[in-house]
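Milestone 3.1: sequence recovery, worked example.
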């Protein structure tokens, strides 16, 4: 799916900040490169590598949110329901994200609890 998306080609063309490459932090299954990084796999890690590896915990928490969306809005589970060229997949998913965020602002979620953060009010979110 990564190859089909063309994301890596797009990153090679435009993903720079002050001349330095912008590098999304991905799953260990993705290929490592200038514009896609992942966790270190060595047993002996330097202090800097340990700090860098800590991003895995944040990456996993983002995946929890994707799981919430497909849990609460089952019809956006691409593997089971959505037909990419036959449905407005992107629009439906964005609406589900907005609703999931609204639910988070009203009731909190696992991610806000883990990082001990209070979400802003619903008014602030939609303002």
């Amino acid at each position: 799916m990564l190859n089909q998306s063309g994301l890596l080609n797009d990153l090679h063309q435009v993903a720079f900040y002050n001349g330095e490459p912008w590098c999304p932090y991905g799953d260990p299954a993705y290929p490592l490169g200038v514009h896609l990084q992942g966790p270190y796999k060595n047993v002996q890690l330097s202090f800097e590598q340990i700090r860098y590896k800590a991003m895995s915990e944040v990456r996993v928490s983002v995946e929890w949110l994707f799981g919430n969306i497909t849990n609460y809005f089952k019809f956006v589970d691409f593997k089971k329901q959505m037909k990419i060229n036959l449905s407005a997949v992107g629009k439906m998913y964005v609406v589900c994200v907005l609703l999931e965020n609204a639910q988070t602002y009203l009731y909190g979620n696992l991610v806000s609890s883990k990082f001990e953060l209070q979400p802003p009010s619903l008014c602030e979110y939609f303002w």
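Residues 12 and 35 are 7 Å apart (CA to CA). The mean pLDDT is 79.
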